[in-house]
Amino acid sequence: MDQRPPENRHQACRFLEEIQLALASKKLRDVEYIVSQGTAARRSIEPHGLFFNQQWHLLAWCSLRKDLHDFCADRICQLKVGTSFKTRSGLPHLATYLPGQNVREPQQYYTIRFSPDIAPKIVETKYDYGWLAESVVDAGRIEMDFSNNSVEYTGRWCMYWLPNAQAIAPMALLPFIDEQLQTKI
Q1: Closest residue by Cα to residue 19 from 46, 42, 44, 41
Q2: How far apart, in whole angstroms, are the C-alpha atoms of residue 156 and residue 159?
Q3: For residues 18 and 6, what is the distance between their CA atoms, to the nearest angstrom?
Q4: 160: buried, middle or exposed (CB in 10 Å: 19+, 13-18, 0-12)?
Q5: Per residue in 93-112, pLDDT tens?
Q6: Cβ-Cβ contacts under 8 Å for 20 (sequence gap 6 or more)
Q7: How confident is the model over 14-59, as pLDDT tens digits?
Q8: What domains sit in the chain, N to C, each tagged with a CATH number?
Q9: Full-model pTM
């Protein structure tokens, strides 16, 4: 059974920007992390990579374990900036780590435009699809950027919101939605 506090489930992205900055600046981070028993533990980490596979994962060197550890981002309760670190040699490239995570397709980036009345309805589910950012565009419509590894997963979710959602990118998403619509007619 998942011991994560429910209030954190859809807050996984609240540290996304800080995690990305840690990766870029090579700054050691102290995290408070919910471990499997549901209790909080503090870890000093050196961020190594970030990926989305049904939820955000932070791959980091854990000073306690003295090894790479896959941290589920929605289990991070607190994150604090530390000191700079040198990149460890001998760590696997993120691309070599991902096949062990049963990732069947490469990471993709998606842009989907929603009508203003739909955007509030997807506040909770957008995180499940790798939500990255959003902005208001013409006529109050909201463009959201996502990253995950499944055109089918994203396409089916986008179809649920039709005609109030429009896939903008990548082009691979558009034929998938068209094909699915044709099979339903």
Answers
A1: 46
A2: 5
A3: 22
A4: exposed
A5: 665 666 555 555 667 888 89
A6: 50
A7: 777 778 777 777 776 788 888 877 788 898 888 888 877 777 888 8
A8: 6-101 (2.30.30), 108-184 (3.30.70)
A9: 0.53
